[in-house]
Please model this.
Amino acid sequence: MLSRRKFIQQSVCISGGVLATSNYALGSDAGSVQKLIVLHTNDVHSRLEPFPLDGSRNAGLGGVAARAALINTIRSEEEDVLLLDAGDIFQGTPYFNFYKGEPEIKAMSKMRYDAATMGNHDFDAGMENFATQLQYASFPVVLCNYDFTNTPMEHRCVPYKLFKKGKLKIGVTGVGIALKGLVPDALYGNTQYLDPVEHVNRIAASLKKKEGCDMVICLSHLGYRYREGNRMSDEVLAKETEYIDLIIGGHTHTFMDKPVIYKNKLGGDVIVNQAGWGGMVLGRLDFIFEKNKSKSLANTHTVLIGKKSSE
Model:
């Protein structure tokens, strides 16, 4: 895994280009396989415009216009695409201070996000505000480990969502971080934090066994990993799950040059990936499904968004 600085330095900074590719496994007979492209962001933090061209290390990167153009290009080239976000949509620029998240949600809807989860900063203007901004969302918010009973978010999110992509059925769920001590009590109110391992395992088992999903994805705002080995994270979650295939992470702003693969409790592979922060990177994972629905991660792409100014 690269540091943020090395990650940026080793990438060619063009809008819409594939910058780094890792080969895991390739499908055999093209006529008997289906390809699924998973695109993802996290911790965009209200960064609607590119970072200013002021000579700083992120100058020229990000922005929804460049992201939308890149997504449109990929959709024109690929038939089956999922676009997902792992939370912290809000907070970080004056856009949020003035408009409280409306332009961020509208931009994501214009880009046709398929699903997103909540991060801790999405509570920053209160749950009522987040619920209000969801009137502009064309995508669901998926969360299985927050109980929003008797809060403004009650009935405004779902524990999972099913997507049909070609002949594939994909289940997407989400988990959020513990709010106590991280978010002021008044901002999350009566929200009850539930054990993410227990609840994601229950949802994932249902998605695999009852719904017959070919793939189960978890959008996580737990954070990739921590020095405290027992602290809940994507790494811990991956090892404790049974039917999750892919964890798209957020919260720790981790720039991952390629995904990390863990073994779950049943000995299967769980892929974990995260795409930094600020909308500078679009994560892309290309999966190949064989005729019998067995899957492999064919390629991973780390794509910088926008044009970086010369240093």
About this structure: Residues 18 and 145 are 35 Å apart (CA to CA).
